[in-house]
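We treat protein structure as text, and this decision shapes the records that our systems exchange. Such a record has a labelled line for the sequence and another for the backbone structure tokens. The record that follows is passed on verbatim for readers who wish to inspect the format:
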Amino acid sequence: MQLFTTRLDSTESTALPLPSANLAAVSSKGVLAIVLPREPSPLVAEVSLAGGAPRELVDGTWLSLPFAPGVADWAPGEGGLAVMRNWQLEFPVGKVLLPGRAGDGIGGSVRFSPDGKRIAFVGGQVGRRVVGVTDLDGHQTILRTGLDNATSVAWHPRTGEIWFSGREQDTRFGVVELRAITLAGKERVVARAPTILVVEDIAPDGTVLVRSDDWPTTMACRPSGSAHEVNLSWQDFSNGMDLSDDGRDLLFTESGAAVGANGAVYLRKTDGSGPAVRLGDGKFVGGMSRDGKWVVRVSPDRLVLLPVGPGGARTLQDEGLEYIRASWFPDGRRLLVEARERGKLSRLFVRDVAQGPPRPFTGEGFEFPILAPDGTIVVARDRSRHAFLVRVDGGAPQPVPGLGAGDVVLRFDASGKSLFVYRQGVPLRIERLDIATGARNLWKEIALSDPTGVDRFVSVQMTPDGSSYCYTVLRTLSRLYAVEGLR
């Protein structure tokens, strides 16, 4: 990623000496707030347009680059910097203006009003976004709910409206639209296009800086016994979710323009033979049962068991629980569930498919569980990103040596004594980590034949013996426009 400067009345641009940086905001004094990619979380820094090295300001920033172009913003004049950090809004840096929690706080974009008295923001949970506004004392008003996706906000200096890029829940029109909403909640569609319209800024004369984005994914697998990868991308936003133990079947979802906000769940052969089989609606899937007969789909208010073959779906609901993740135990009779009780942090549960209620086996704050092959222990992280081994039948969590905050755990190996882990990067290096000693050895390096526009690896799956793997990469392909006449 490279930053450039350009005039709106010119097609010429000048590269800035800031490799691997992303722009968050520009102050009235010509100071850039930029995002530097660091592990385990990005940093926000400042640097002058006149040049010089960046000065680090904020760490621990939540950021998904294509979906959060406004992670920070400068207040008008000399007012300082507002920033999203750990799902909270801070202004000035270090003072929490709006609190939040992981997955349910400020997590999209923040922008000051032209007079500097208010801040517009995107927040809420993934798949249930909101657009709101707060004053500088932390008194907030939610203007818009019910958004499957919302990516950015900007204030119109003439109308006082907040313009945002978003997509409705349950819509079959799959792309993100450009919308406007008043502080009284009156909303309208400004523009709709076949591509994703992301509002970046609005000039005093009403000229709108807009990105026209395409966020395609590439989903590929290397089947067992094959020397080559097979491109299994189905529509425009395929995302691998689970790989059968024999490496023959890939479970994946679609959630882009082709299927709309509800998404769809598919199963496909990893050798590419035959078309994908649609199992039902959904964007978040926990995985397949060991016998390959069932798939668990995760929604905040329910778990839905989708049959792979003949039969009807089954719904599981537990009062007072908000579901986040779910996967199958080896016996096919129980589910490992990450969920939140109302007003509390996430924790881990065992949920018998035939009967409830779920049984918690961790305290609050544990997330991202990975189950061992025998179903007796999980690897999970606490709020500080520290990794622990936790026994399903109880007992004190034990730290995992050698596992860092920036490591993504793929799965246990077949023996249950090692973990397959990786860190984001291109090429992707997958290592085998010994649970007892923390020793690491390179298992596989996945290089991309076409890295154009690649933002990150969205997901990676592999078989217990490592003989087969699949991955999904997200590409961010953008064009920037200065648009006149939008009203």
